[in-house]
Amino acid sequence: MMTMPMSGVEMAWWPLVLIGFTVGVVGGYFGLGGAWLVTPALNLFGFPMVYAVGTDMAHVAGKSIVSTFRHWRFGHVSVIIALTMLIGTMSGVEVGAQVLMFLNSIGLAGPVVRYIYMVLLFCMFFFMLREYLGAKKMEKETGKEVKDLVGNRLSRWIQNNLNVWPVIYCKTARMHISVWALIFLGIFTGFVAGILGIGGGLLRVPALIYLVGVPTKVAVGTDLFEVMFSGAYGGFTYGAKGMVELAAATLMLCGAAVGAQFGTICTKYVYGLTIRLVYSIACFFAFTSVVLKQVASNYSKVYEKGMLEVLAAQGITGNQAKIMLQYPEQMQHYMLNVANRPDWWQAFQTYNTINTVGCVVIMTAACGISGYILYLLAMGIMKERREKRQAEQQAQIKA
């Protein structure tokens, strides 16, 4: 067992390596930082939410470097698009964070963030799944295999009608687009990411696909390139505030560095359409997890209201009381020995159970998805070797 010096959490080292490996596989395949997986996983193992977020942000930059290097070799990274969007992303994240602080001050941060999450995740699940099914239907009708869907009416309208100078040409994505369109897109995705408290990959990949019109694999690699910078910035800010467990971040990075290799290489053997299908499935499970958290929050209100009254009677108020609410063991002591209110404790137990189920759902889904990605990788490698042997045999016959 290891004791984390900042948060005081005790846990074994191997779950951290496993979490890192899983998020490395999924992140390298989708082009995401992995906050939707790492944060609830660490929270499930006892990390207070603020340390879970900070530790996640600290390991994201290193993992993204490994994944980006591989995508770069495959020709999936558009540096000019990533750097241009980054200009808007940084300012958008800051504005979004300020809005989040305001919502937190009036007690609406939790519900607003969860409902935004639910809308975004369900929309991405619905549209990507619909596209995949539509493409498969097209394959049956035409008899031609659909590898990816590049561009749509909206992305073509943005490219053709918002061509305000300066207009850049992206060789990787083979398209012209206005710098201002990319900056404003970065501001929008950064603003929403700032409110949600995430790196932004969950939004940028669909934005690059549907609004900019880049191929799916290029969207994945380009987003990972940008996550390197946003992850490093987030890790630095949380580290400066003492909210990063470096030991946990290092162990997760060791697992992520290996997992990212598998996830990234897998994109070489699958079509962009397949990436969208798996992405839509991940969005569905993430949506389910957030719905459970929203249900659990209804019970947490009862518990927290009662516990704040208990702590106030002991002379503990303000931020100190809010911080103590993040540590169930301490609250159990107060509840059983001071409060003598089983209804409050029952509300907490119900909240904790539903919240745990939500974390387990997303972790199980992530492990299942990473396993499927590894399966696709194995099938792709076997197919490549089989085709190589067939080509060698045909060459020998001709010779």
UniProtKB/TrEMBL annotation:
Record-annotated membrane-spanning stretches: 12-38, 74-92, 112-129, 179-203, 246-265, 277-296, 354-378
Domain of life of the source: Bacteria
Topology within the bilayer: Multi-pass membrane protein
Compartment(s): Cell membrane; Membrane
Pfam families membership: TauE
InterPro entries per UniProt: TM_pro_TauE-like, TSUP/Inactive_protease-like
Main location: membrane
Alphabetically ordered keywords of this record: Cell membrane, Membrane, Transmembrane, Transmembrane helix
One GO location term (cellular component): plasma membrane
Family from the record: Belongs to the 4-toluene sulfonate uptake permease (TSUP) (TC 2.A.102) family.
Protein name, per record: Probable membrane transporter protein
Native organism: Desulfallas thermosapovorans DSM 6562
